[in-house]
Design goal:
The protein is globular. It has eight helices and four strands, in the order H-H-E-H-H-H-E-H-E-H-E-H. It has a single domain, classed as 3-Layer(aba) Sandwich (NADH Oxidase), CATH 3.40.109.10. It starts with a helix and ends in a 5-residue tail after the last helix. The chain has 216 residues and is of the alpha+beta class. Helix 2 crosses helix 6. Bound molecules: flavin mononucleotide.
Length: 216
């Protein structure tokens, strides 16, 4: 698939088929994603791919912790943001909500769904060693972009999951990740369920003029 098309088409997938992703496909994708540039080629990322029973166990623990601690990433949860950003968050709600079953609450869908990686058969957990300063998160962001676009081009659906960073201790313990590694982001990865209406939601973007200035 051509890159421009992948950039146009990619979206966060929040319903997956119960079909494991082939190991060779994941390896190829990770080879491509780790071609991402990084400052002085530090390649500061460390990646754990979780699948099968381990992935189910991880999801169970995260959902349990989320319920115990009442943690949320749904729009409105961080309402200290300026109104302009709250409006963008509400825009996400507006495109997802009509595609949820009648009885589903948006908050529960996002929070439980995120902790379960929306039922994806694999979860990719990206961590960075604390020896690196926070500017190196830029490198992780680029890796993430490569991973999401590459996955889409290879026919895989993804959803980045920032909510899991609230449960970094549990993740480190379950996956045997040393304490000095910061959990930066998780990604649910699998084959998108083409029948599920939630995957039809396409998030909006603000007009370019709201975020780009030209000087010259
Ligand atoms: C760093 C980051 C963290 C995210 N965390 C979550 C999350 O915890 N749960 C979730 O459902 N979506 C999460 N998302 C997906 C965003 O909601 C999504 O990218 C955004 O609404 C734009 O939609 P699109 O990806 O379909 O273009 C995250 C995305 C990024 C880049």
């Amino acid at each position: 698939m051509d890159l421009i098309r992948a950039m146009e088409e990619r979206r966060s997938v929040r319903a997956f088929l119960d079909r494991p992703v082939e190991r060779e496909k994941l390896e190829r994708l990770l080879q491509l994603a780790t071609r991402a540039p990084s400052a002085i080629n530090l390649q500061p990322w460390e990646i754990t791919v979780v699948f099968g029973e381990e992935k189910k166990r991880l999801s169970r623990v995260l959902v349990k912790r989320m319920r115990e601690r009442n943690i949320s990433c749904a729009p409105g949860a961080r309402n200290r943001l300026p109104e302009v950003f709250l409006e963008r968050q509400r825009g996400l709600l507006d495109v997802i909500l009509p595609n949820l079953p009648d009885e589903a609450s948006f908050e529960d869908f996002i929070n439980e769904g995120s902790c379960n990686f929306y039922g994806a058969p694999s979860a990719v957990i990206i961590v960075i060693d604390e020896v690196f300063s926070s500017v190196r998160l830029t490198d992780i962001g680029i890796l993430l972009g490569y991973l999401l676009l590459g996955a889409h081009a290879m026919g895989l659906g993804t959803c980045p999951i920032g909510l899991i960073t609230a449960f970094d201790d549990d993740i480190r313990e379950l996956l045997n990740i040393p304490d000095q590694k910061q959990v930066v982001i998780g990604v649910g990865m699998g084959y998108a369920d083409p029948e599920d209406p939630v995957n039809r939601a396409r998030s909006n973007r603000v007009p370019l003029g709201d975020v780009v200035k030209w000087r010259g």
